[in-house]
Amino acid sequence: MKRTQTKLLASLALTAWILPALAQDIVVYSARNEQLIKPLFDAYTRDTGVQVKFITDKEGPLMARLKAEGKNTPADVLLTVDAGNLWQASEEGLLRPIRSKTLETNVPAHLRDPGNEWFGLSVRARTMVYNTQKVKPTDLSTYEDLAHPKWKGRLCLRTSKKVYNQSLVAMMIHEYGEDKTEAMVRGWVDNLATSPFPDDTKAMEAVAAGQCDMTLVNTYYFGRLMEKNPNLPLAIFWPNQNLKTKSAGVHVNISGAGVTRHAKNPAGAQKLIEWLSSDKAQNLFADVNLEYPVNPKVAPDRNVAAWGSFRQNLVNVKEAGSLQIKAVKLMDRASYK
Amino acid sequence: MLLALAIAALVLVPVVVTFSSFARVEGDILAHLIEFALPELVGNTLWLILGVGLGVSVLGVSLAWLTAMCEFPGRRLFDWALLLPLALPAYVTAFVAIGLLDFTGPLQTWLREGWGITGLPEIRSRGGVILVMSLALYPYVYLIAKNAFATQGAIALEAAQSLGLSRTQGFFRVALPMARPWIAAGLMLALMETLADFGTMAIFNYDTFTTAIYKAWYSLFSLAAAAQLASILILFVLVAVVFEQRSRAQMRYSAVGRSAAQRRIRLSPTLAALAFLYAGVVLAIAFLIPLTQLALWTREVIADDLDTRYWAFAWHSVLLAGIGALMVVTVALLLAYAGRKRPGPAMMWTQRLATLGYAFPGAVLAVGLFIPVAALDNWLIDTGRAWFGFDGTEILKGTLAVMLLAYLVRFLAVGFGPIDSGLHRITRNVDEAARNLGTGAAGLLTRIHLPMLRASLLTAATFAFVDIMKEMPITLMTRPFGWDTLAVRVFEMTSEGEWERAALPSLAIVIAGIIPIILLTWHGTRSHN
Fold it and tell me: Which of A25, A199, A264 would best serve as a mutation to test chain B binding (most B beta carbons within 10 A)?
């Protein structure tokens, strides 16, 4: 008798938790920050009536959290930046494969997981930015060329601790092997004008101030800086456009998403990701941060398009993940801080 | 005693989780770090501790002496204003300092373009990190040392002078040694925060033990290797703390004959002017200049970014920091009190273990706490499902209780330091006298000790409040849906490098952090009158 009562009371107390779980909400764990995703989720709710709840944090803690929560995670979708992180989430068994014709059409093959566990939603190009008063575009050619002694004391770089540089070097390893890549990174380090910067913007400001002549950045940082300060003597150069070089195309990375292994609402999660890749959402997704849409049918923001079109490197971005550890170790060996 | 053990046990949970990582040693990652990173970063870390230790001691003790013992123009203002840098997160000071002083900053640009002067010392350097960390963290030493000087009584110093010591000798041979537990307590807090810091080090790109921990986790994808490195860091801190405690275990620091009103030292006009200048420069560099920069950046973004949600962010921050600070102070008082009633090695170890949370790199502690909570939750959910057909995914996690307990584990040290050192000032004679007059244990606490400890309690509450306001990793990991705080806003902006936009929430944190500092001062003046 007493036990029944306890059960009853406990069930009543638990109802408070049960109710929200019944609604077909979608829960997103996101390493892409709030101001970049909230407008999209609001639009999705307006379109479909489905509520999207989200929590933001860094990738590492989010993945540790998913893992610790196991089958009782509230998360349906993991949204992060950088293919390396998505690859790692898949390695850890945190995602589930989904079959979706829509995503296969909307997302180019090199920007999604061959195992269908994650899909790119926006493209981030890591390219060269140079001082227009000190460098002629004809002097510039490839990432590899920056190791040449003619650049001695003229190069600024962001720290190797940032995943963007780790991905770049990982992709280089994929194409050239470790030895050649290490020699190249050592060349970069030898050419540095000053110790590496904590972020892309600081590196570009140093280029503009003449502390060095050029640097490597993600384009949206360039866009943001020029929007605020249009008179800076800076311009973008697209490297590795010559198809004869071994590494062909500008290094690209993605922000992307996958459905969690233990999603409570996997169908809803898949619909959300498909919607994010659609014509309707792609501009909102990419333009809010001056990135490139992943969907080739969708044109980039006008200001972004003004930087010119370029050929992407077509190696699958998963290599950024599978070779990341090697890349980090390599950069340590080359004393790239 | 039992309670003290229970508290220590709570803190031990993340410690055990972290140490349990040794069950699976990732040999190749550790070997790589040892070969290519360890020698440099151990050197870097030691230099940092040495430099910041010296920096905060010199700044904190000298400023505390000036405001507590001397009279000079502006003293009343400096007395509380010198605490303000506490409200400013160190990474903000760092970002502003680099922005102003680096090659691209206004100072160097002006010198270079106007006067052709180059070759200034590089701010992004070891010296730069030490300078910024010292300026950001000296208030820990300052506030606790000020309490020490204010309560140590004039008699000892007068005795020293009657024995023929000059004023300077009196300071170094009497006042300073008598204030040692306080200075040590402040120093420990500053150094633990330095060791665990990630944000400031990332901005300076200065590799320390803690940055290597994050590298193992985020870049080399090995939470296990990160936890193993963190274990080594924690052990090092534990040994250092116990060693410091041992070295003064036999000393007593009770005040001798508290004189009712201490006479302040009247400085000569030249010295008074120098004191004013010194305190003013520290305040300007550590607080006013960064604050002005924040205000300027805020002006650029406020129209776009400030919306009604900010009331909720600020309210969450203040509420969590308020409740958290209350918990920290209460538990720290109990823990310190247990040590007074039953001193001994067992108690000392208990206290030291219970305050280790502050030495953890933040995100490592957050995971160390989250993993057991999630495991417990999984068990509860499975049980609930079997018994009641429970259909949710969260019972404990995603509640404020977990978040507040995590803050307690993290910040118990900042409450314990001031309170424990404050208790040293109360002689056992006081306890005996009170007992002889028929006061019970409860009366002793509420009527004798608490009033005598008021300054220490307020100090502890201020530290805890401001630190919780600034805390990021635990807040990010344990906050329930919709419980974003000002610190979460800072994260949202800085994670994509938008430092200028982060000025708005940072400024809000500073303003909210000033509230307890003003309360503290107000209480201080009231008790003086």
Answer: A199
